[in-house]
Amino acid sequence: MSGAGQMALLALAGVLAGVVGTAGGITSLISYPALLALGLPAVTANVANIVAFAACWPGAALASRRWPLK
Questions:
Q1: Which residues, at least 6 apart from 53, have a Cβ–Cβ distance to it below 8 Å?
Q2: pLDDT block averages, 10 residues each, the chain of length 70
Q3: How far apart are CA 12 and CA 4, in angstroms?
Q4: What single-letter DSSP state applies at residue 65?
Q5: What number of H helices and E strands is found in the chain?
Q6: Looking at residue 32, what is its pLDDT?
Q7: pLDDT value at residue 69
Q8: Among 10, 31, 55, 68, whose CB has the most other CB atoms within 10 angstroms?
Q9: pTM
Q10: Amino acid 23: pLDDT
Q11: If we measure between CA atoms, which residue out of 15, 3, 10, 68 comes closest to residue 37?
Q12: What are residue 68's phi and psi, to 5 degrees?
């Protein structure tokens, strides 16, 4: 697969993972197989998912706060 094709697959997987994540928080269902399909080793793909998951925690915490803030 070409570099542009890989970027397109990653972008599509990112969007789908985001949609799935808003519904149930299981973004790895989309992102992990996409990373494996691009040829990343399993451990590397798993680490990438863990880092992305940890990076999403602050946003999820802010989004779950009661609004408007007082």
A1: 27, 28
A2: 82 79 70 88 89 73 71
A3: 12
A4: S
A5: 3, 0
A6: 87
A7: 64
A8: 31
A9: 0.61
A10: 60
A11: 10
A12: -80, 150
